[in-house]
Specification:
This protein is 6% helix and 38% strand. It has 405 residues and is mostly beta strands. Strands 3, 4, 5, 6, 7, 8 and 14 form a 7-stranded antiparallel sheet that branches. Strands 17-24-20-21 form a 4-stranded antiparallel sheet, with no helix packed on it. A hairpin with a 5-residue loop joins strand 1 and strand 2. The chain is elongated, with a radius of gyration of 35 Å.
Protein backbone atom coordinates (compact mmCIF):
# COMPACT_ATOMS: atom_id res chain seq x y z
CA UNK A 1 0.00 0.00 0.00
CA UNK A 2 1.32 3.44 -1.00
CA UNK A 3 0.48 6.38 1.28
CA UNK A 4 0.26 9.81 -0.35
CA UNK A 5 1.06 12.69 2.01
CA UNK A 6 -0.56 15.85 0.64
CA UNK A 7 -0.24 19.53 1.51
CA UNK A 8 -3.19 21.73 2.50
CA UNK A 9 -3.98 22.43 -1.18
CA UNK A 10 -4.28 18.73 -2.03
CA UNK A 11 -0.99 18.38 -3.91
CA UNK A 12 1.14 15.31 -3.15
CA UNK A 13 4.22 16.30 -1.19
CA UNK A 14 5.60 12.78 -0.73
CA UNK A 15 4.55 9.14 -1.20
CA UNK A 16 5.80 6.16 0.76
CA UNK A 17 4.84 2.51 1.31
CA UNK A 18 4.04 1.29 4.82
CA UNK A 19 7.50 0.12 5.86
CA UNK A 20 8.69 -1.92 8.81
CA UNK A 21 8.48 0.05 12.03
CA UNK A 22 5.41 2.03 10.97
CA UNK A 23 2.58 1.89 13.48
CA UNK A 24 -0.99 2.91 14.32
CA UNK A 25 -1.74 3.76 17.95
CA UNK A 26 -4.95 4.74 19.70
CA UNK A 27 -5.48 5.36 23.42
CA UNK A 28 -8.92 6.43 24.59
CA UNK A 29 -8.98 10.19 25.30
CA UNK A 30 -5.16 10.27 25.17
CA UNK A 31 -3.79 9.91 21.64
CA UNK A 32 -4.66 8.77 18.14
CA UNK A 33 -1.94 8.75 15.50
CA UNK A 34 0.06 6.85 12.91
CA UNK A 35 3.83 6.83 12.46
CA UNK A 36 5.31 6.41 8.99
CA UNK A 37 8.91 5.20 8.93
CA UNK A 38 11.12 5.72 5.88
CA UNK A 39 14.61 6.91 4.86
CA UNK A 40 15.64 9.37 2.12
CA UNK A 41 18.89 10.45 0.48
CA UNK A 42 17.73 14.06 0.45
CA UNK A 43 15.39 15.58 3.03
CA UNK A 44 11.75 16.43 2.35
CA UNK A 45 10.35 19.16 4.58
CA UNK A 46 6.78 18.78 5.78
CA UNK A 47 4.57 21.66 6.89
CA UNK A 48 1.79 21.88 9.45
CA UNK A 49 -1.44 20.64 7.89
CA UNK A 50 0.22 18.07 5.62
CA UNK A 51 -1.52 14.75 5.95
CA UNK A 52 -3.33 11.78 4.46
CA UNK A 53 -6.96 11.03 3.69
CA UNK A 54 -7.48 7.40 2.64
CA UNK A 55 -8.70 4.08 3.97
CA UNK A 56 -6.41 4.46 6.99
CA UNK A 57 -8.34 7.58 7.99
CA UNK A 58 -7.65 11.31 8.10
CA UNK A 59 -4.36 12.22 9.79
CA UNK A 60 -2.44 15.49 9.83
CA UNK A 61 0.91 16.89 10.90
CA UNK A 62 0.10 19.08 13.90
CA UNK A 63 3.63 19.53 15.27
CA UNK A 64 6.71 20.56 13.27
CA UNK A 65 8.98 17.64 12.45
CA UNK A 66 12.64 17.34 11.48
CA UNK A 67 14.27 14.09 10.25
CA UNK A 68 17.35 12.53 11.86
CA UNK A 69 20.60 12.58 9.91
CA UNK A 70 22.11 9.11 9.47
CA UNK A 71 25.90 9.22 9.78
CA UNK A 72 26.32 5.74 8.28
CA UNK A 73 24.26 6.23 5.11
CA UNK A 74 24.55 10.00 4.70
CA UNK A 75 20.76 10.11 4.34
CA UNK A 76 17.86 11.08 6.54
CA UNK A 77 15.66 8.79 8.68
CA UNK A 78 12.02 9.67 9.26
CA UNK A 79 9.49 8.57 11.86
CA UNK A 80 6.80 10.98 10.75
CA UNK A 81 3.92 11.21 13.22
CA UNK A 82 0.54 12.18 11.79
CA UNK A 83 -2.22 12.69 14.34
CA UNK A 84 -5.93 12.12 13.79
CA UNK A 85 -7.61 15.16 12.28
CA UNK A 86 -9.23 16.24 15.55
CA UNK A 87 -5.99 16.30 17.56
CA UNK A 88 -5.06 19.64 15.99
CA UNK A 89 -7.74 21.04 18.29
CA UNK A 90 -5.17 20.88 21.09
CA UNK A 91 -3.55 23.97 19.54
CA UNK A 92 -6.75 26.05 19.91
CA UNK A 93 -8.27 27.50 23.08
CA UNK A 94 -11.95 27.28 23.91
CA UNK A 95 -13.87 30.57 24.24
CA UNK A 96 -17.36 31.26 25.50
CA UNK A 97 -18.16 33.54 22.53
CA UNK A 98 -15.69 32.51 19.82
CA UNK A 99 -17.42 34.64 17.18
CA UNK A 100 -16.74 37.91 19.08
CA UNK A 101 -13.50 39.86 18.90
CA UNK A 102 -13.27 40.32 22.68
CA UNK A 103 -12.99 36.67 23.53
CA UNK A 104 -12.42 35.52 27.11
CA UNK A 105 -10.19 32.45 27.58
CA UNK A 106 -11.08 32.13 31.27
CA UNK A 107 -14.77 31.59 32.05
CA UNK A 108 -17.20 29.45 34.06
CA UNK A 109 -20.47 27.80 33.12
CA UNK A 110 -23.08 25.84 35.05
CA UNK A 111 -25.23 23.90 32.58
CA UNK A 112 -25.97 20.49 31.16
CA UNK A 113 -23.41 18.67 29.04
CA UNK A 114 -25.42 19.46 25.91
CA UNK A 115 -25.18 23.22 26.59
CA UNK A 116 -21.43 22.99 27.22
CA UNK A 117 -21.08 21.14 23.91
CA UNK A 118 -23.07 23.81 22.07
CA UNK A 119 -20.36 26.26 23.09
CA UNK A 120 -17.70 23.75 22.02
CA UNK A 121 -19.27 23.25 18.57
CA UNK A 122 -19.49 27.03 18.11
CA UNK A 123 -15.72 27.14 18.60
CA UNK A 124 -15.21 24.52 15.90
CA UNK A 125 -17.50 26.38 13.52
CA UNK A 126 -15.72 29.68 14.15
CA UNK A 127 -12.38 28.00 13.35
CA UNK A 128 -13.80 26.50 10.15
CA UNK A 129 -13.09 22.92 11.25
CA UNK A 130 -15.05 20.24 9.42
CA UNK A 131 -14.75 16.55 8.68
CA UNK A 132 -14.71 16.03 4.91
CA UNK A 133 -17.03 19.05 4.43
CA UNK A 134 -19.35 17.90 7.26
CA UNK A 135 -20.02 20.05 10.33
CA UNK A 136 -19.26 18.37 13.64
CA UNK A 137 -22.16 17.24 15.83
CA UNK A 138 -22.45 15.84 19.35
CA UNK A 139 -23.97 12.57 20.49
CA UNK A 140 -24.58 12.09 24.24
CA UNK A 141 -25.48 8.57 25.32
CA UNK A 142 -28.49 8.09 27.61
CA UNK A 143 -26.19 6.55 30.25
CA UNK A 144 -24.67 10.01 30.84
CA UNK A 145 -26.33 12.09 33.60
CA UNK A 146 -28.46 14.95 32.26
CA UNK A 147 -28.03 17.27 35.26
CA UNK A 148 -26.33 20.69 35.20
CA UNK A 149 -22.75 20.86 36.46
CA UNK A 150 -20.22 23.61 37.09
CA UNK A 151 -17.13 23.67 34.85
CA UNK A 152 -14.34 26.25 34.98
CA UNK A 153 -12.31 26.87 31.82
CA UNK A 154 -8.95 28.57 32.37
CA UNK A 155 -7.09 28.98 29.06
CA UNK A 156 -8.08 25.39 28.22
CA UNK A 157 -7.47 23.99 24.75
CA UNK A 158 -10.28 22.17 22.97
CA UNK A 159 -8.94 18.65 23.63
CA UNK A 160 -8.45 19.32 27.34
CA UNK A 161 -11.94 20.79 27.45
CA UNK A 162 -13.42 17.52 26.13
CA UNK A 163 -11.52 15.51 28.75
CA UNK A 164 -12.59 17.93 31.47
CA UNK A 165 -16.25 17.53 30.46
CA UNK A 166 -15.97 13.72 30.37
CA UNK A 167 -14.39 13.64 33.83
CA UNK A 168 -17.04 15.98 35.24
CA UNK A 169 -19.87 13.74 33.99
CA UNK A 170 -18.03 10.49 34.75
CA UNK A 171 -17.86 9.19 31.19
CA UNK A 172 -15.54 9.01 28.16
CA UNK A 173 -15.35 10.89 24.88
CA UNK A 174 -14.36 9.63 21.45
CA UNK A 175 -14.83 10.82 17.89
CA UNK A 176 -16.15 8.90 14.91
CA UNK A 177 -15.98 10.84 11.65
CA UNK A 178 -17.89 14.08 12.29
CA UNK A 179 -19.56 12.96 15.54
CA UNK A 180 -18.25 13.75 19.03
CA UNK A 181 -19.49 11.02 21.36
CA UNK A 182 -19.92 11.02 25.13
CA UNK A 183 -20.78 7.82 26.94
CA UNK A 184 -19.39 4.80 28.70
CA UNK A 185 -17.61 2.00 26.85
CA UNK A 186 -20.03 -0.64 28.06
CA UNK A 187 -21.09 -3.75 26.21
CA UNK A 188 -23.41 -6.61 27.10
CA UNK A 189 -24.13 -7.45 30.75
CA UNK A 190 -22.18 -7.08 34.00
CA UNK A 191 -19.31 -9.40 34.92
CA UNK A 192 -19.24 -11.57 38.03
CA UNK A 193 -15.82 -11.94 39.67
CA UNK A 194 -15.29 -15.59 40.64
CA UNK A 195 -12.25 -16.76 42.59
CA UNK A 196 -10.62 -20.13 41.92
CA UNK A 197 -8.28 -21.99 39.61
CA UNK A 198 -7.68 -19.82 36.55
CA UNK A 199 -7.31 -22.95 34.41
CA UNK A 200 -11.09 -23.20 34.67
CA UNK A 201 -11.62 -20.36 32.20
CA UNK A 202 -15.33 -21.06 31.87
CA UNK A 203 -16.22 -20.44 35.54
CA UNK A 204 -13.27 -18.64 37.16
CA UNK A 205 -11.78 -15.25 36.28
CA UNK A 206 -10.03 -14.12 39.48
CA UNK A 207 -6.99 -15.79 41.04
CA UNK A 208 -6.98 -13.91 44.37
CA UNK A 209 -8.92 -11.02 45.87
CA UNK A 210 -7.91 -9.08 48.98
CA UNK A 211 -9.99 -6.90 51.25
CA UNK A 212 -8.97 -3.40 52.30
CA UNK A 213 -10.69 -1.47 55.11
CA UNK A 214 -9.13 1.84 54.04
CA UNK A 215 -11.52 4.62 53.06
CA UNK A 216 -9.01 6.92 51.37
CA UNK A 217 -8.41 4.89 48.21
CA UNK A 218 -11.14 3.03 46.41
CA UNK A 219 -12.30 2.23 42.88
CA UNK A 220 -15.59 3.41 41.43
CA UNK A 221 -15.06 1.87 37.99
CA UNK A 222 -12.97 -1.03 36.73
CA UNK A 223 -11.87 -1.26 33.10
CA UNK A 224 -11.30 -4.96 32.45
CA UNK A 225 -9.43 -5.99 29.33
CA UNK A 226 -11.50 -8.49 27.36
CA UNK A 227 -14.52 -8.36 29.66
CA UNK A 228 -18.11 -8.36 28.41
CA UNK A 229 -18.71 -5.03 30.14
CA UNK A 230 -16.77 -1.76 29.75
CA UNK A 231 -14.76 -3.19 26.85
CA UNK A 232 -15.61 -5.69 24.10
CA UNK A 233 -13.65 -8.94 23.90
CA UNK A 234 -11.56 -7.72 20.94
CA UNK A 235 -10.61 -4.34 22.47
CA UNK A 236 -7.21 -3.39 23.87
CA UNK A 237 -6.86 -0.13 25.80
CA UNK A 238 -3.50 0.63 24.18
CA UNK A 239 -3.99 -0.55 20.61
CA UNK A 240 -0.62 -0.74 18.82
CA UNK A 241 -0.02 -2.22 15.37
CA UNK A 242 3.73 -2.15 14.74
CA UNK A 243 4.65 -3.24 11.22
CA UNK A 244 7.43 -5.83 11.36
CA UNK A 245 6.89 -7.68 8.08
CA UNK A 246 5.83 -6.42 4.66
CA UNK A 247 4.83 -8.80 1.85
CA UNK A 248 3.32 -6.87 -1.03
CA UNK A 249 0.11 -5.34 0.29
CA UNK A 250 0.10 -7.57 3.39
CA UNK A 251 1.54 -6.00 6.54
CA UNK A 252 2.06 -8.00 9.72
CA UNK A 253 2.82 -7.24 13.34
CA UNK A 254 4.82 -10.40 14.03
CA UNK A 255 5.61 -9.42 17.64
CA UNK A 256 1.92 -9.50 18.61
CA UNK A 257 0.70 -12.67 16.89
CA UNK A 258 -2.63 -14.09 17.97
CA UNK A 259 -2.65 -17.12 20.23
CA UNK A 260 -5.40 -19.47 21.35
CA UNK A 261 -4.86 -18.24 24.91
CA UNK A 262 -6.22 -14.81 23.90
CA UNK A 263 -9.70 -16.23 23.36
CA UNK A 264 -12.21 -17.86 25.74
CA UNK A 265 -12.31 -21.64 25.50
CA UNK A 266 -15.94 -21.44 24.35
CA UNK A 267 -14.79 -19.67 21.18
CA UNK A 268 -12.06 -22.16 20.24
CA UNK A 269 -12.88 -25.41 18.49
CA UNK A 270 -10.42 -28.20 19.19
CA UNK A 271 -10.68 -31.71 17.84
CA UNK A 272 -8.35 -34.55 18.78
CA UNK A 273 -8.29 -37.90 17.02
CA UNK A 274 -6.09 -40.82 18.04
CA UNK A 275 -5.45 -43.47 15.39
CA UNK A 276 -3.42 -46.64 15.09
CA UNK A 277 -3.30 -46.96 11.33
CA UNK A 278 -2.09 -50.13 9.64
CA UNK A 279 -2.12 -50.11 5.86
CA UNK A 280 -1.37 -53.43 4.21
CA UNK A 281 -1.83 -55.66 1.22
CA UNK A 282 0.09 -57.31 -1.59
CA UNK A 283 3.07 -55.38 -3.00
CA UNK A 284 2.62 -55.72 -6.74
CA UNK A 285 4.79 -54.72 -9.67
CA UNK A 286 2.38 -51.95 -10.58
CA UNK A 287 1.80 -49.07 -8.19
CA UNK A 288 -0.68 -49.93 -5.45
CA UNK A 289 -2.32 -47.36 -3.12
CA UNK A 290 -3.69 -48.02 0.38
CA UNK A 291 -5.80 -45.38 2.14
CA UNK A 292 -6.67 -44.59 5.76
CA UNK A 293 -9.34 -41.88 6.21
CA UNK A 294 -8.75 -39.38 9.04
CA UNK A 295 -11.72 -37.00 8.64
CA UNK A 296 -14.42 -37.10 6.00
CA UNK A 297 -15.46 -33.45 6.35
CA UNK A 298 -12.81 -31.54 8.36
CA UNK A 299 -13.60 -28.09 9.69
CA UNK A 300 -11.45 -25.26 8.34
CA UNK A 301 -8.54 -24.42 10.61
CA UNK A 302 -5.11 -25.50 11.74
CA UNK A 303 -4.45 -29.20 12.31
CA UNK A 304 -1.44 -30.89 13.84
CA UNK A 305 -0.48 -34.49 13.05
CA UNK A 306 1.58 -35.76 15.99
CA UNK A 307 3.49 -39.02 15.55
CA UNK A 308 3.83 -41.07 18.72
CA UNK A 309 6.18 -43.47 16.92
CA UNK A 310 7.79 -43.68 13.48
CA UNK A 311 5.96 -44.95 10.43
CA UNK A 312 7.51 -48.21 9.24
CA UNK A 313 7.36 -50.01 5.86
CA UNK A 314 7.45 -53.75 6.57
CA UNK A 315 7.94 -56.45 3.94
CA UNK A 316 7.35 -60.20 4.38
CA UNK A 317 7.20 -63.09 1.96
CA UNK A 318 3.89 -64.90 1.64
CA UNK A 319 3.71 -68.03 3.81
CA UNK A 320 4.03 -71.22 1.75
CA UNK A 321 1.32 -73.90 1.86
CA UNK A 322 2.07 -77.02 3.88
CA UNK A 323 4.40 -79.34 1.98
CA UNK A 324 5.72 -76.62 -0.33
CA UNK A 325 9.16 -74.92 -0.21
CA UNK A 326 9.58 -71.72 1.84
CA UNK A 327 8.85 -68.44 -0.02
CA UNK A 328 11.37 -65.61 -0.09
CA UNK A 329 11.16 -62.01 -1.20
CA UNK A 330 11.77 -61.50 -4.87
CA UNK A 331 14.98 -59.71 -5.75
CA UNK A 332 14.34 -56.08 -6.57
CA UNK A 333 13.69 -52.57 -5.30
CA UNK A 334 10.65 -52.15 -3.02
CA UNK A 335 9.54 -48.53 -2.68
CA UNK A 336 6.94 -46.86 -0.50
CA UNK A 337 5.65 -43.26 -0.44
CA UNK A 338 3.60 -41.85 2.45
CA UNK A 339 1.16 -38.98 1.76
CA UNK A 340 -1.20 -36.77 3.78
CA UNK A 341 -3.87 -35.52 1.39
CA UNK A 342 -7.32 -33.96 1.13
CA UNK A 343 -9.72 -33.01 -1.66
CA UNK A 344 -10.61 -29.41 -2.53
CA UNK A 345 -12.66 -28.22 -5.54
CA UNK A 346 -12.32 -31.59 -7.28
CA UNK A 347 -8.54 -31.49 -6.86
CA UNK A 348 -6.26 -33.62 -4.72
CA UNK A 349 -4.09 -31.49 -2.45
CA UNK A 350 -0.92 -33.14 -1.14
CA UNK A 351 0.23 -31.53 2.08
CA UNK A 352 3.07 -33.90 2.95
CA UNK A 353 4.95 -36.81 1.38
CA UNK A 354 7.98 -38.91 2.27
CA UNK A 355 9.67 -41.69 0.33
CA UNK A 356 11.59 -44.77 1.44
CA UNK A 357 12.81 -47.93 -0.25
CA UNK A 358 14.30 -51.35 0.45
CA UNK A 359 16.59 -53.31 -1.88
CA UNK A 360 16.59 -57.12 -1.86
CA UNK A 361 19.65 -58.53 -3.66
CA UNK A 362 19.59 -62.19 -2.62
CA UNK A 363 17.20 -65.15 -2.61
CA UNK A 364 17.20 -65.85 1.13
CA UNK A 365 15.39 -62.80 2.57
CA UNK A 366 11.97 -63.33 4.11
CA UNK A 367 11.40 -60.11 6.13
CA UNK A 368 12.63 -56.50 5.87
CA UNK A 369 11.55 -53.11 7.12
CA UNK A 370 12.40 -49.44 6.49
CA UNK A 371 11.43 -46.39 8.54
CA UNK A 372 9.74 -43.24 7.24
CA UNK A 373 11.62 -40.49 9.08
CA UNK A 374 8.62 -38.20 9.48
CA UNK A 375 8.57 -35.07 11.70
CA UNK A 376 7.12 -35.49 15.17
CA UNK A 377 4.57 -32.74 14.43
CA UNK A 378 3.19 -31.81 11.02
CA UNK A 379 1.18 -28.56 10.87
CA UNK A 380 -1.59 -28.24 8.28
CA UNK A 381 -3.90 -25.32 7.45
CA UNK A 382 -7.09 -26.86 6.09
CA UNK A 383 -9.27 -24.42 4.06
CA UNK A 384 -13.04 -24.22 3.95
CA UNK A 385 -14.61 -26.83 1.67
CA UNK A 386 -11.94 -29.49 2.11
CA UNK A 387 -12.98 -33.13 2.36
CA UNK A 388 -11.58 -36.63 2.80
CA UNK A 389 -8.51 -35.85 4.88
CA UNK A 390 -6.50 -39.06 4.68
CA UNK A 391 -3.19 -40.90 4.83
CA UNK A 392 -2.12 -42.72 1.68
CA UNK A 393 0.61 -45.32 1.17
CA UNK A 394 1.74 -46.06 -2.38
CA UNK A 395 3.93 -49.11 -2.99
CA UNK A 396 5.76 -50.39 -6.07
CA UNK A 397 8.11 -53.33 -6.76
CA UNK A 398 10.82 -53.15 -9.42
CA UNK A 399 12.21 -56.71 -9.70
CA UNK A 400 15.74 -57.58 -10.75
CA UNK A 401 16.74 -60.85 -12.36
CA UNK A 402 19.93 -62.90 -12.01
CA UNK A 403 21.54 -63.81 -15.31
CA UNK A 404 21.80 -67.54 -16.03
CA UNK A 405 25.33 -68.85 -16.52
Amino acid sequence: MIVDIKDVTGNIRFSTPINKGSKRKFTLMKEDYITLKFSLDHPVYFNLGDGIDNELGVFELIDLYKPVYNNKTGGYDYELRLDAYYWKWKNKKIFYTPEDSGREAGWNLTATLAVHMDVFLNNLKALGYKYRNEDFTCNIDNTVEQSSKFVSYDNSNLIDALTQLAETWGCEWWITDSKINFGRCEYSSSVDFKIGDLNDTENVNVNTMQRSDGQNSYATRIYAFGATRNLPVTYRKNLIFDVKKVNGRDITDTERSLKFDFFPSSGVTEEEHSINASLGGYALKDQTTYTYELLKSPNAGTYYVKSISNWVLQLAALPAPIGFPTNYLTRGRYSGTLYIRYNLDEKVITHYNYHTWITVDDDTTRNLESTFWTPKVIEMNIPTGASNLRIELTTEVIPTYQALS
